Amino acid sequence: MGKVRADAGPFARRPDNSAFKQQRLPAWSPSLTPYTVLPVFYFLALVCVLLGVWLLITVQNTHQLKIDYTDAGACATCAEMRNDPTKAKMNCDCVINFNVPKTFQGDVFIYYGLINFHQNLRRYIKSRDDDQLVGRKNSLKSPSSYCEPFAYDENAVPIAPCGAVANSMFNDSFTLTYHPPAGAAVNVPLYRKGITWYTDKNVKFRNPSTNTTLQQAFQGTAQPPFWQKPVYELDLDHPNNNGFINDDLIVWMREAAFPNFKKLYGILNRAHTTFSYGLPEGNYSIAINYNFPVQYFQGRKEVVLSTVSWFGGQNHFLPIAYLVSGGLIFIVAIVLTAVYVKVGRSGKNMEE
Amino acid sequence: MDMRVKPAEEERHVKANDRDYNERFTYADNHIKTAKYTFYTFLPINLFEQFQRFANAYFLVLLILQLIPEISSLSWFTTIVPLVLVLTITAVKDATDDYFRHKSDQQVNTRQSQVLIKGKIQKEKWMNVRVGDIIKLENNQFVAADVLLLSSSEPYGLCYIETAELDGETNLKVRQALTVTSDLGADVAKLADFNGEVVCEPPNNKLDKFIGTLYWKDNKYSLDNEKMLLRGCMLRNTEWCFGMVIFAGLQTKLMQNCGRTKFKRTSIDRLMNTLVLWIFGFLICMGIILAIGNTIWEQRVGRNFWAYLLWDELLSSAVFSGFLTFWSYIIILNTVVPISLYVSVEVLRLGHSYFINWDRKMYYSRKDTPAEARTTTLNEELGQVEFIFSDKTGTLTQNIMVFSKCSINGNTYGDVYDEFGHKVDITEKTPCVDFSFNPLMDRKFRFHDSSLVEAIKLEEPLVQEFFRLLALCHTVMPEERSEGELVYQAQSPDEGALVTAARNFGFVFRARTPETITLYEMGQPVTYQLLAILDFNNVRKRMSVIVRNPKGQLKLYSKGADTIIFDRLEPANEELMYTTSEHLNEFAGEGLRTLALAYKDLDEDMFDEWMKKLLFASAALENREERLGALYEEVEQGLMLLGATAIEDKLQEGVPETISCLTLANIKIWVLTGDKLETAMNIGYSCNMLRDDMNEVFIISSHTMLEVQQELKNAKERIMGPSRERFSSSQDVGKTDMYASDSVFEETIIAECALIINGHSLAHALEADLEQILLDVACLCKTVICCRVTPLQKAQVVELVKRHKRAVTLAIGDGANDVSMIKTAHIGVGISGQEGMQAVLASDYSFAQFRYLQRLLLVHGRWSYHRMCNFLCYFFYKNFAFTLVHFWFGFLCGFSAQTVYDQWFITLFNIVYTSLPVLAMGVFDQDVNEQYSLRYPNLYRPGQLNLLFNKRKFFTCTLQGVCTSFILFFIPYGAFLCAVRDDGSHISDQQSFAVTIATSLVIVVSVQIGLDTNYWTAVNHFFIWGSLAVYFAILFAMNSDGIFRIFPSQFPFVGTARNALNQKSVWLVILLTTVVCIMPVVAMRFLKTDLHPTQTDKVRLLQQATRRQGPQEQNLRRVRRTSSRRSAYAFAHQQGYGELITSGKNMKVHTSSTSAVPSSSPGRTHSSGNWIENMLKKRGAVEAEETMDSGVTEHIRADERSEDSLETLYTH
């Protein structure tokens, strides 16, 4: 406070006459007048309703098909096998038939969905080592303590990728077949690459740098205990889709926020003439390599086929929420107008 | 050396000039230290102090919890960053404060003093002065320690001091050394040989008491307070004096009185602490709910998951898991107890204090005094004041008396008339009378009626006699510093004003000796022989002098209360008496203090006879007073009336306007004064506190408890009148109900009453049985004036109101006698005026003029309160909205204490993303501008009623926060449950969800602060838009590739912002969330202003309307009503000064003549060495009596004592 001034004149201690010190800064004082509030309400109501309608129309034009295969049809036996600890490691395949009632136009995405799988538990989410996944050599050999108890196997060999998230990776695989009304069954071709975020594939996940093979880079590490194959052999068809930058691993490692989620499995390859417009209506079958056990936690597994719109997949929540909000705002706006006309405009309340 | 630590000093032994001896006792040296820390102890002590605060300790515990890996749901940095920031800010503030204390200590400690060391006077710093040292003091120097006066330059070892810094009194006090020591004089050798030993009381804080004995040369001399010069006094009118240090440094009475002032807290502070405790309880409840949820979940669902995740060995049981979860959630949800709350509040208050310091409209240019907020913790309470307790002298009044009017021989002078014969109001601009004919005039004197000067110039004998009387009949001491530059030392300001008036009108009182008075009458020196001073006392209510003029005529001049003088007039004066009496009524009606003047020619023979009797009487040992009184009475008969004077007790500028404005703001103003009833009432009328149109003025001035009770009861019944029934029925109900009904009553009572109570009655009324009824009556009255109250009673009254009314009290005063009430009241305001600094030092705010109070309360206080309340509402809202999202998420993530947001977001949300806009709002916001704040004082009402922030408000804003958090969580949840990106890849991952919610949250709270901000300065714009920009900048920075490559595990959100925020669906979610969160608030506010507009809303509307129309200066100056009440009172000085003058003791030059001239004055006849002791004794007796009367002991008496004088006449 005590700024000593050199000049000790008669008004030496007089405060400065600045707008700031005298609290006279130029300012804008808005207030909630009917002329600003009511138009804003009507405008917002209109915007919300219009957006809602537009979104609804968009959503109506998207298609989505869910196939719960947990214990459906032939998969029931596989489910039982997974439940039986003695047969847990045995391979099991099953086929499920389904019908696409209407052509899925445009890009079609195939997801696997899990119900009641808590990928969002604190200890689960933390149970990973981003240092390791970005290919740091030190972390590869000595994973972070967050990965416990999936940091080292029983022989004290470090696990790569370590942690519960990687360990519990979804490992069912699907083969989709189209049965046209006439002619032979066609295998539906899928892109199994390019299903991740660019940043994940190129920044967040890197393989340990190496001059030789990937297998050597991962030498001295063990595969996660639940896995059937090591990390460098995840995709035998595409050699550069292995290790930490395997698309399926990356997709799985992006933990879902809620216990029910779906993750991208593949995208319809429309290069094939049959599928150039999308997925035609008709009968399909899906062959599942059934590995992932969900019975422990009363979970469900499903395959989801879906098209997308400009704002994402089939999502009825947003259009409805917008319509409801728009409607409510409109009602409130009318009430406010009524109140203003009845009470406020006369200005009776504003009198002293 | 004897280093035993004595438990408590029981008796002090000090030997002069013997440092070795004195050092054995380890007395404190003269070094003072008020600073708390040194360079090295600062960090440990400050940290220790800071961690004693609940909030800081709480966050320390959190920090420790976060270091336990099983519990830690958040990284340690989320807590440590804000904590370190908070600690640093506080530490810097403490360090600056302490630095200034060090500096002022240093400045005091290095003052120079002259110490007698080894037979020589040497310069020493104050801090090196030791107990037992003999020091030399010179005129206008501060006394360095508590010193026993040994000798001085003045005769009889007298010494004058001013004790303004000590007790606030500006009048000079006399101290006298023992005769034996005063003989030492200035002889350094003798002084160096002086080896007396003082045995006295241990250090204490009683300023007016000292008991000790001096042992010297085998003799014992008793010592008392009259021989002590206390630290903090200033030597006046005394060339030099020598003294022996008895108490030094921290043991001086001054320092012992500087008790640590009680730490004042505002009601908002207390409420805030309660609320923080509630929130804490709420936090624990949430923790328990979530912990139970976790236990159940683990048992039902999680158990199945364990096999999957191999955690069975870690979590042996669900209950233990629940227990750990509890702590984890305590950590996550800790942000509901906002860590930055306390520090932000401090910052706001600091800002508000600066605005007070900077306010030019509270700067008093004449004294170059700006307003000063001496504490920075009470600002918002300034907006809640309901009771103001004001001192009178120096606060409401200037304590300056101005000769304003007079009546001479039936003619009044002093009014100014225009050419049409209408009376003109006298203002600053009214032309003054030109006194240039008189070279000895006082330039500051102003008089506006030139007819009086003309009368003087025409040499009208009665006019001359009038002023001659004023120049002769007084006890003023003149001091002529250089030729023609006269300064009058008057014991009472009234007397000074009269003599100054005479001086300007050409009757210059120039010099006096014990036997003569020299006047310059119209430039001619005339010497009168002073034969007797018939001194003033309370019974006589008049004073007279008997003089012989150069022509040899004997004259008696008398001035006094009008009724007293009128009773003693020659019958022939009757006609003049009536005219004068009318004039007196007129003067009194204008609130002026009046005196009547009369003279008498004395017969030589008769006088000689009378003089003999007087000499005889004054030598008498018994009944001396009475016998003298009777003799005085005998001679003061058959007086010839000259006229009357009217003196204006000048009010401070703008006092009536301020009081009426504050009254309109529903602030009750009580005047607590040490003055007499009549003086106080007179001021009450002139400040518009008492008015003619008041229904009733109750005056309580009884001496017994029963009478007081009866009077109070009567008063209450009179006020209550018809509505008494209702009141008495409500009396049976519990106390709190009664207050409620009380306030209802206060509203319904239309009658305007005033209560005036004097000190004696107040002492009874303040007892436990009567205080309730006193309070009832006082609160029913519009005006309360307590007079003749002691400082302690002032504090008791404040305490009473504080205790029973649950209202914020403010005490304002300027003198040391106000210190107790300033310290007791919630807010203490000191007038940095002429009465010394004691009050200012004890106060929380200080400024130079009473009228600034209006601005302090109605503008600064109101704004502060408004800002603080809005700030708190928003702060709690924001933190609830932010934190409770975790609670909702708990139900979906198995109560596993997973955070919704990124850890960095949690760390930065409160301190970076949302702190500055709300701070800017809290510093700059103005709901109504200052002109309108002053123009509509009832805008102050919400603060008094505590409407803007209370428990209900708190619930509303936390509820709003809870709702916002609910919407913030569930709209994105609904949208993300089945959402995918437009390229098909999924987006419902935890990180995208976190970014979406965080962005919505930041936008929603920014819009909300925008809604709460009434006054958008450039700073607000900058902070609000800047915060949003900073949020996005930091978000993208933290999600960038670069930072991820450096610390992969600390910034796992790489790419999330890019991938989430380029999605239209995410923005649709954010838009929807914002609209749904904000629109209900807007609608509610709109409805509220439409249906139940507050006063603020109305004034805002008005303000905006006028702004649109352009500024229209409305003149709202309230007309000052003058009272037509007839009252008059006289004044005089302290009794005993007549004796002092005639004894010649206080006259430096003419002391030799005292013994030379044969005595004709009664004062000189009795033992001359005793006069001052007599005087002191007399005064002591009066004080003792007063002290006993009021039933309290008090240490400090101030200006009012000078009023202990001629009784006032009071006629309705």
TrEMBL record, chain A:
Pfam families tied to this protein: CDC50 (PF03381)
Q: Which InterPro entries match?
A: CDC50/LEM3_fam
**One Gene Ontology term from the biological process aspect of the record:** phospholipid translocation
Q: Where in the cell is it found?
A: Membrane
Q: Which domain of life is it from?
A: Eukaryota
Query: Where's it mainly located?
Result: membrane
What stretches pass through the bilayer? 35-57, 320-341
Q: Which GO terms describe its cellular component?
A: endoplasmic reticulum; Golgi apparatus; plasma membrane
What keywords does the record list, in alphabetical order?
Answer: Membrane, Transmembrane, Transmembrane helix
Look up the signal peptide feature and give its range: none
**PANTHER family, per database record:** CELL CYCLE CONTROL PROTEIN, CELL CYCLE CONTROL PROTEIN 50
Identify its protein family.
Answer: Belongs to the CDC50/LEM3 family.
Q: What is this protein called?
A: Cell cycle control protein
TrEMBL record, chain B:
GO molecular function: any one? Answer: ATP hydrolysis activity
Cofactor entry: Mg(2+)
Q: E.C. number, please?
A: 7.6.2.1
Signal peptide boundaries: none
Which residues of this UniProt protein bind ATP? 391-393, 495, 536, 559, 593, 673-675, 788, 794, 817-818
Q: How does it sit in the membrane?
A: Multi-pass membrane protein
Q: Name one Pfam family in it.
A: PhoLip_ATPase_N
Renumbered residue ranges of the record's region Disordered? 1148-1171, 1183-1212
Give the UniProt record's GO annotations in the biological process aspect.
Answer: Golgi organization; phospholipid translocation
Instruction: Reply yes or no: does the keyword Metal-binding apply.
Output: yes
Domain P-type ATPase C-terminal, which positions?
840-1094
Going by the record, the broad EC class of this enzyme is translocase
What reaction does this catalyse? ATP + H2O + phospholipidSide 1 = ADP + phosphate + phospholipidSide 2
Residue ranges of the TM segments: 275-297, 317-343, 871-892, 904-924, 954-973, 993-1011, 1023-1047, 1067-1087
The cross-references to Gene3D superfamilies, in alphabetical order and at most eight, read:
Calcium-transporting ATPase, cytoplasmic domain N, Calcium-transporting ATPase, cytoplasmic transduction domain A, HAD superfamily/HAD-like
Top-rank taxon? Eukaryota
Q: Which family does it belong to?
A: Belongs to the cation transport ATPase (P-type) (TC 3.A.3) family. Type IV subfamily.
This protein is called what? Phospholipid-transporting ATPase
Organism name = Pygocentrus nattereri
